[in-house]
Amino acid sequence: MAKLFAVTILLIAIGSAIPILRHTWDAPPDISTHGTLIDEQMSDTMVEAGISFLVSQILLAFFIWKFSSSRPSDKIKTFPGGAKTIVWAAFLLVGTEVLALGVFGVKAWANVYLTPPSANALPIQVQAEQFAFYFRYPGPDGTFGPVHPEMINGATENFFGIDQTNDADSKDDIVTAEMAIPVNREIHLLMHAKDVGHSFFVPELRVQQDFVPGLDLSVHFTATRIGRYEIVCTQLCGLGHYNMKAYLSVLSAQNYDDWLKKQAALQ
Amino acid sequence: MHDVPVHHHAPPTSFLRKHVFSLDHKVIGKQYYGLALIAVFVGMILSWLMRIHLGWTNLAIPGLQLLSKSGAPGGIITPEYYLQLMTMHATIMVFFVLTTAPFAAFGNYFLPIQVGAEDMPFPHFNMMSFWVTFIGFVVLMSSFFVGDGPTLGGWTQYAPLSAVGAVSGPGQGTGVVLWATAIAIFCIGQLLGSLNFITTTLDMRTRGMSMWRLPFSAWAWFITSIMGLTAFAVLMPACILLILDHVAGTSFFVPGNLVINGQIQPHSGGSTLLWQHLFWFFGHPEVYIAIVPGMGIVSHVLTPNLRRPLLSHRVMVYSMGALAVLSYMVYGHHMFVSGMNPVSSLVFSFPTLVITIPSTIVVLIWMGSLYGAKLRINSPSLFALGFISMFITGGISGFFLAQPSIDIMLHATYFVVGHFHLVMGVAAMFGIFAGTYFWFPKMFGRMMNETLGKIHFWLSFVGAYCIFMPFHYLGIAGNVRRYPAFTDDYLQPLIPLHRFITVAAVLTGIAQFIFLYNLVHSRFWGKPAPENPWEATSLEWSTPSSPPPFDNFGGKLPTVYHDPHQYGVEGASADYVMQTSPEQIKSGHDEA
Amino acid sequence: MKSRYRRILSAVLSTVVLIGGGALILGQRVNAAGEGKITGSVKLNGAAPHMKGIDMSKDPYCAKAHATDPGHLETVVAGANGGLENVVLYISDGLSGSALTDVPTAVPVFDQKNCVYTPHVLAMDIGQKFKVVTSDQTAHNIHPNPNPMTGNIPWNQSQPPGAPPVEKSWKAAEVIPVQCNIHPWMHGWFVVVKGPYATTDSSGAYTINNVPPGSYTVTAWQEEYGTQTQKVTVAGGQSATADFTFKAK
Lengths: 267, 592, 249
Fold this sequence. Notes:
B: two-stranded antiparallel ribbon; 4 strands; C: mainly beta; Immunoglobulin-like; 2 domains; five-stranded mixed β-sheet; 17 strands
């Protein structure tokens, strides 16, 4: 029974590692400039965690195999060095391992969150609501008009509550249901929640950030590959949470300008 | 023997006092176990419904429309009903199973016996603690049948979804109020219980029972009760504030100018992150409240089955203590992408990484103790070893989630679901199973069926890995959690994996009925248990009978001479020496 | 003693029979031949405002359904001859007896088709059952927003593809906006009225049937332009006419 148990642990450990090694289910390829660091951090962690996982499970299996068949006359042996070795090993091996991960990870995190967006980053506002994203481009004046919550009305498609007749800054604002961005240009995404908590997650872009009602946040990123990607919500926001999405189109600079003109005409 | 006579309360005679409103910690422990047993099967069946829906979204489940006509019209689960089932599954499992079974149930039954007391110091508090918890369960379950059903906000109940009322979704009105009421009531029960546990450990130890002579399980319950006292004391007011946001027009968790379904909400000035801070300040210690008793039980179950003491009693206890202390400093890792200051994320990430050190020490102590042992394979030891394997697997995925940069990719995905199910769900369940198979003979005077126990173990062990390992793959591929169906293009290739998990979950769930059968059958028709079936040394095996008499030790309190780890003792009459045995031994490991 | 009880009992019984019988006679429905109707048309005076197009890219199913014919808002739907569609006409004053209390047995249907509400405006009587169905292969949620002070209880329910119809009714007269939060452009109306009602077709024409003879105030409701009223007298078995004209803003 013990030997069977040991073999089972061994098989499960190896079996679990196979899909990881073969990349059967992998994260979608990165299309951002900051994602490389995150991906490196991920694969470093995967190597360390994978080794720890395999070593400890195999050791557990081996010990179960080895020490379950002793006879009554056998004497108890003590692990060489006893608990002291173990404490030292834990501090040195695991301590340095996790601290190294932590320290290296700071860079990947700081790269996303602790650097300001560059001055010429393109500002785009995204508003999350149950259960859709809407986007606002500031138009030629580069300024977003003020928001009037009492004017928000989905029936007239005034999703942001902007007053285009009275507010000068709002006149040229462009509201869209799809997010289009020019490739290789930094985007400064201003995030606003209309009702409850949501999240902005584009796996390919290596961006995930919650929308916090009452607290407008921002993230910045640069996409490097033209294509159409899904923006999904990862913060439980109600019955349509799984249907809350929008598309992100990364376009060439020319196509982006054309798209924006077309959207402006539709306002 | 210099046993101390006890003259406390006389055994009850009326049925009510004996079995219902009992003051006896043993009966209360069994009541907690019974409640957890009902809750765990309810929670498991809810998980079946969810899994079936995730695998085959349009499959009608016959009869489900009887439970909720609008939630499952024609037996097909609607998205909101899926989320309601999910919230209830999590709430039932976390609060009424993982907190009650390893901590309140076994702790109540065995802590007073293991310290050598005839009962807890406040029996009325103890009785109240169970009945209050029971009322909490009833209130929670009642939300299935009130209004438009239970809340759909998840067990974390993030505001403002949870705080603005029915306009934000089905069950977000009455459902949330009932949920918060149930949890607030539950907190009262656990506060009363924790108070009793702490006092029992500190004040009720019998002669010779120093703190260092307490077995691991007693230490674990003691540490857990300290965590419980501080964690539930935060959750309860948080729940009360949430209720006030619903019924008293306050805005603790709701900022101004929210427009929901076209209506401006009549709230202003609240903070949504406040709820997250309050909740996770409770929520992370709660994870350890669920797992530390499991660690204690596993250590306690392993020692007699290794026939040797663990490498170090003190290192083990210090590690559990370190986990408890650190658990308060790491809660921010749930909020890396929540909009909290990104510098705080880094600050919270380091203690989270450091917490792997005591966890590693605990695991290595078990493994190092396995080295050179005379391992006995039986149902309790199999589950204890299974616990170690699960704890390693679930713990290692914590390496990823502790890092804010990786959390950008893994937050709110199935990776998280796999991580916490293995480490606090399955591992804690294995701890409960190990405890059940181990202590059943003491609790009921009968043995559980070993063959059925082993079948149960094999199906559960392999099944749990089949269910929860693929969760990690789904998470790496970016599969968002809390989705009732997968409509996004990039999730389509993952549906076959979901179906595999569903099949595994249903089969593993069925295997749990073997356990239920074994439990019920052995209770009445099991083989009579010998006095000390596992040849263990701690005080519960020194009571005059199984189950122990009303005052535990038959009118006298025992005197303790040794620590509880006298296994493989050289020169002793057997290979183990009971804690109550005055036998003089030369021992290298009595650390008392 | 016994006879006294019997006397009281028979008195109570006969009172009940009298009142019941009286109510039956008084409340008896005027037969169909005696009922008249109100017909007419609703027109828009001036150019119809521009209706914004809808970007449905959020849901590929909806976008595909509108690939060739992009959706538009339906706040004001005017025909070629100025006929206004989706105007609800009902008798706001002058009804009495059974004409007021009778609830039609017909079950109007509110369909979600190609991510648009069909019809855009659904009129119904108080207590009348109506059905919400979906013809789409994508999930919707139906989230009407009544004022709870009227006695109408708000609800919010998903209808995934293939889900059975949702059957409901309203307790009080109210104009209730309804929306789908999954598709935020989907906005419609439940107009709950007391008594007979009609909704204009694409040419702006309407007919309110089953109107007993009498003098009434007819109200026309349009979501953008509000309400207008007219007095009209219906003779037994005859048809009265009431035409309305809304002025474009």
